[in-house]
Each structure stands twice: as C-alpha cells, then as structure tokens.
C-alpha cells in the first residue's frame, strides 16, 4: 500500500468524506485507537439492552488499547466482529465517540482524534480510551462479575458458595 494521503485532489480531508468513498487504507485510519469496541458486552435477553464490562478481548493490550495481532485476529478470535462501512452506523454497542459511528452519521471527528490533533495519545488523555481501565478475558474470571451498570452493585446469589451465579 502507498502512503496515506490526508487530503484528496480537491483538498478535502479524507475523514470528512462519506464512508463509501474511503479506500480500505483510509477506512482503517479512521480508528481512533480507544479499544472500546474490543471490550465484552452483555445483552439482556429480554430487553436487548447492552451492558458494558471492563473485560477486554484477549488480544487487546490493556495498557495501550491496541490489538496485539490485528492482521490475524480472526484466527485467534473467530467471533471478532468485522466493522464495515455498512454496519458502522447501526451497531448499538459502538460508543458515541467512535469515529466510524460519527462519520456514518455525517458528524465530524472530535478534536482529540489523532487525525485532527496529530497526536495518537490524545484519545487517552481525553478519557475515551480503555487503556489502563480494563482486564483481559484471560484473567477476568466470570464476565458477570465485571458488568458496569450505574447504580447497581454486584452481589453473590443468596446461599451461594462462589459458584459463579450473580444477581444485580
């Protein structure tokens, strides 16, 4: 692949173009490196509500929020979802700050995005990144113990002797 060009012949920044017009290289460059899409979520089977956890995919470097084997991730994590131009605006678990989601809805990138700021570390300083805030699935234990719901405290089930059942 050639060098990524920030602007086209018309002077327009590639990240301001509709997603359908981006090259594959430009598409990949939209990622802000926050790592939020690489954290596990739980879905309520009755309501469809999605609850975040602080558990990351085993391939996510929890200190940098970057995938340790992005090019071959599907070989190690077969259920890793491939974000596409068609799905970027429709996935409810993508954070509101996600560049793919923002651009799918025609919104501009935030000031901290590295394509705007020129600084890859800005995502971390803005508090958007999961770096240093998550635990790998290899170390987490029962994922239910890591669900993050404001106002709720996880408790062991009544009469439980740590069999992995939890109540919210």
Automatic annotation (TrEMBL):
Please name the Pfam families in this protein's record. Answer: CxxCxxCC (PF03692)
**Residue ranges that the Swiss-Prot or TrEMBL entry lists as coiled coil:** none
Please list every transmembrane segment annotated in the UniProt record, as residue ranges. Answer: none
The protein's matches in InterPro entries, at most eight in alphabetical order, are given as: Puta_zinc/iron-chelating_dom, UCP006173
- Which NCBIfam families does the UniProt entry name for this protein? PRK05170.1-5, PRK05170.2-5
Query: To which protein family does this belong?
Result: Belongs to the UPF0260 family.
The name of this protein is UPF0260 protein GCM10010990_31370
């Amino acid at each position: 692949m050639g060098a990524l060009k920030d602007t086209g012949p018309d002077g327009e920044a590639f990240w301001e173009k509709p997603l359908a017009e981006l090259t594959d290289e430009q598409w990949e460059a939209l990622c802000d490196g926050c790592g939020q899409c690489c954290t596990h979520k739980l879905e309520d089977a009755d309501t469809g509500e999605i609850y975040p956890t602080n558990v990351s995919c085993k391939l996510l470097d929890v200190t940098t929020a970057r995938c340790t084997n992005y090019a071959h991730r599907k070989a190690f994590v077969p259920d890793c979802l491939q974000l596409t131009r068609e799905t970027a605006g429709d996935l409810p678990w993508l954070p509101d700050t996600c560049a793919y989601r923002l651009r799918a809805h025609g919104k501009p990138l935030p000031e901290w995005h590295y394509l705007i700021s020129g600084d890859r570390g800005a995502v971390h300083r803005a508090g958007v990144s999961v770096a240093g805030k998550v635990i790998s699935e290899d170390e987490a234990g029962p994922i239910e113990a890591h669900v993050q719901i404001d106002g709720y405290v996880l408790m062991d089930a009544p009469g439980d002797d740590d069999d992995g059942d939890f109540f919210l």
